[in-house]
Amino acid sequence: MRVTVQQLRDWKRQGQRFAVLTCYEYSIAKLLDAAGIPVLLVGDSMGSVVLGFENTLPVKLEDMIRHAAAVVRGAKQALVVADMPFMTFQTSAEDAMRAAARLLQETGAQAVKLEGGTTVAPTVRRLVDAGIPVMGHIGLTPQSVHQMGYKVQGKTVQVATRLLADAAALEDAGVFSIVLEGVPAPLAGRITQSVSVPTIGIGAGPLCDAQVQVIHDILGLFTDFIPKHARRYADLGQIIQEAARQYAADVTGGEFPGAKESFTMDERVLHELDAGEPRLEVPEHAPAREPEFGGYAPQPS
Ligand code: KIV
Questions:
Q1: 179 ligand 1 Cβ < 6 A
Q2: Confidence of residue 299 (pLDDT cuts 50, 70, 90)
Q3: Which is nearest to 148 in space by CA: 178, 194, 117?
Q4: Atom of ligand 1 at shortest distance to CA of 83?
Q5: Which residues pair with residue 113 across a beta bridge?
Q6: Cβ(115) – ligand 1 distance below 6 Å
Q7: Is residue 202 within 6 Å of ligand 1 at its C-beta?
Q8: In 3D, which of 46, 39, 80, 87 has the Cα closest to residue 63?
Q9: Is-contact 251 241, C-beta < 8 A?
Q10: Predicted confidence (pLDDT) per residue in 274-292, tens digit
């Protein structure tokens, strides 16, 4: 049975915290689903961590559709939420309806997420009235990077008051949950107490109802950077580099592939093929070779 948005609301009522992870592809979706992660967010952070853009602004609806569909194919239990990219919902409620419809119809995702508070509340209401579950997202909203930078939001009375009002407006508009990103922990706690839907924190401290993290951060896929709000649960970056180095060494040293990784063929076919020629035996490992040129030298990372 797939997790539902109603279940998340029940978990809030019951005081049950839950974990959310971003996910952008089929194989990882299968793993996270099997690990029992109840909500997978196909975030537009994909623009930075998968596509290598400087920020999330270049992400297109088509990118989200392609990746959200792959995640849905891999996740049988988790609720899959697809992010609405920059300028797919800010222009008008109609544009938002069309974009959200494509996300649900073409990917099979069960919900959408969009950034913004009071100003996007009327659009959220239209989506919810049309039967589309919406996750809100306030605080540090990366699609506004050129206005706010990547700075914690809500440290002044004015901004903190606005964020409380944003959360209330989103709740009134019918969101099933609200991401609080880059919000001081005490304010996130106040917002969490003030709404009946679960808050999902990232850089918002322990008082939220749930937590979301970018999968690349918790798996250590970037060896040179970890955001302050993240905790590394594995060093996959190191493991991948080491495996790649070992593989390259095995190939250049003739250790891979060996007989175990090779395919055989019928002896009679071989005999006919060779027809008097000296027989070419496949050795256990590739024979040693003198390189004629320097070749590619791996650079230290
Ligand atoms: O795009 C994203 O991955 C997000 C999460 C970090 C909340 O918005």
A1: yes
A2: low
A3: 117
A4: 1
A5: 83, 135
A6: no
A7: yes
A8: 46
A9: no
A10: 887 777 777 787 777 765 6
Helix H, strand E, coil C: the string for the chain is CCCCHHHHHHHHHHCCCEEEEECCCHHHHHHHHHCCCCEEEECCCHHHHCCCCCCCCCCCHHHHHHHHHHHHHHCCCCEEEEECCCCCCCCCHHHHHHHHHHHHHHHCCCEEECCECHHHHHHHHHHHHCCCCEEEEEECCHHHHHHHCCCCCCCCHHHHHHHHHHHHHHHHHCCCEEEEECCCHHHHHHHHHHCCCCEEEECCCCCCCEEEECHHHHHCCCCCCCCCCCCCCCCHHHHHHHHHHHHHHHHHCCCCCCHHHCCCCCHHHHHHHHCCCCCCCCCCCCCCCCCCCCCCCCCCC
Distance CA 100, CA 116 (A): 16
Q: What are the residue numbers of the active site? A: 181
Burial of 210 (0-12, 13-18, 19+ CB in 10 A): buried
d(CA 5, CA 194): 19
Whether the pTM exceeds 0.85: the reply is yes
CA of 246 to the centre of ligand 1 (A): 34
Q: Ligand 1: distance of its center to the CA of 214 in Å?
A: 7
Range 66-84 average pLDDT: 98
Among candidate residues 144, 91, 88, 148, the one with its CA nearest the CA of residue 112: 88
Domains of the chain: 5-234 (3.20.20.60), 236-301 (no CATH)
Residue 69, C-beta contacts closer than 8 angstroms, at least 6 positions apart:
106, 107, 108
pLDDT at residue 257 greater than cutoff 90? yes
Protein residue whose Cα sits closest to atom 1 of ligand 1: 43
